[in-house]
Amino acid sequence: MKLKMMGILLFFMLMAAGLPLAAAGDAESSDADGTFTIGWSNAGMGDSWRQFLQSNFLAEAAVHPEISKFYITNADERPEKQIADIDDLISKGIDGLIVYPTVGEVIAPAIERAYEAGIPVVVFGGSIATDKYTSLVTQDLLDFGRSQAQWLVEQLGGKGKVMMLSGIAGNTTAEERLTGAREVFSANPGIEILDHQYCDWSATKTKSIMEAVMNAFPQIDGIWADSGLMSWPALESMEEAGRKLVPSTGDQLNGYAKFLVENNIPGYVYPMTTKLSAESVRILLKAMQGEVVDKIHYINVSGMGPDEIKVFVRPELSDWWWIGDDQIPEEFLPDL
User: Fold this and answer.
1) Does residue 25 surpass a pLDDT of 50?
2) CATH code 3.40.50.2300 region(s) in the chain
3) How confident is residue 287, by pLDDT bands cut at 50, 70 and 90?
4) Is 278 helix (H, G, I), strand (E, B) or coil?
5) How far from 63 is each of 26, 36, 120, 219, 223, CA to CA, in Å?
6) H helical segments located in 198-305
7) Which of 1, 101, 147, 249 is the most exposed place for a label (fewest CB within 10 A)?
């Protein structure tokens, strides 16, 4: 464990210093020998989902000796920083670029600059406001929001008062999920949306918001949240206030699944896989090697109701574990 922690600390020290990170153990390789230097512009590292995202990227990069080195940048969810990060990666002479976007419309010009410079660009997660990229690796995020909302509508028998909780305002992933959910709720007039709030995928902010919501609304019949990072603390807030626990939606956060099972309340899990980063590495390598890749590459997932969640949950693991995203060598798993 000490060696693992030392390695993690060294990794973040190198990242903070803006140094290249050697992949596959060959820091001396150069592009002249047919290997590649790639850059990953990451939107942020604000929660454990992002840690698993990075773990899957590192594990995938490690099995490709054709990647001589890579850079990872962290935009701290600020589009202006992500633009600067992408421009800096271009200036470093990278052969390929991966982008997990903050606000797609804002950072599109930086992505276009990379693409127009002849650099293959793979975007993953949410959509981007340009077609000047090589491939988009994504889930159907509209279906993500729709599936969650449809399950909740059916759970409530088509009638009830619902609180909506989203991630970060403007973030492409959060906004597409929200759009999908609103489509379903709008088609079901028996559903009343009490309020919608952005919680930044933060448990602390969610609890603060839920306290205000419970003071304002004596009746809450359901919670639509685009992540367990918010539905779980929202339910905890209701429990602490002595309110009846209600059906909710989320993703594959283990703590959320645990809470549902332990309290025997109905919930719906729609995974947002962190394997998106690993798949992006594979697609980028194909593009850099001259293979034709799909403009949009979907990773298919399916949602799970209460019975499936009881099988899916991992009681022995951390609350902050992302179930199903840990199928990588142990040395790459985050130390939560």
Assistant:
1) no
2) 2-139+273-301, 141-269
3) very high
4) helix
5) 12, 13, 20, 53, 41
6) 203-216, 228-240, 254-263, 276-288
7) 1
